[in-house]
Amino acid sequence: MELTFAKFLVMEKILFDKTYFNVKDTLTCGQFFAYEVIEDKFLIRSLDKFALCYNQGDYAIIECESENVEYFFNFFDLKRDYSSCYEKAISFNVPILTKSANLGRGIRILKQDKYETLINFIISQNNNIPRITKSIKYLCDNFGREVKFMGKTYHAFPSLYELKSISCEDFKNAGLGYRAEYVCEVANLLFNNKLDLDYFADLGYNELERELMYIKGVGQKVANCVMLFAYSRFDAFPVDTWIEKIYIQDFAGTPTTRDKITNYFISLFGQDSGIIQQYLFHYKRNLD
DNA sequence: TACCAGGTTCCGA
DNA sequence: TCGGAACATGGT
Question: Is A111 a catalytic residue?
Answer without folding.
Answer: no
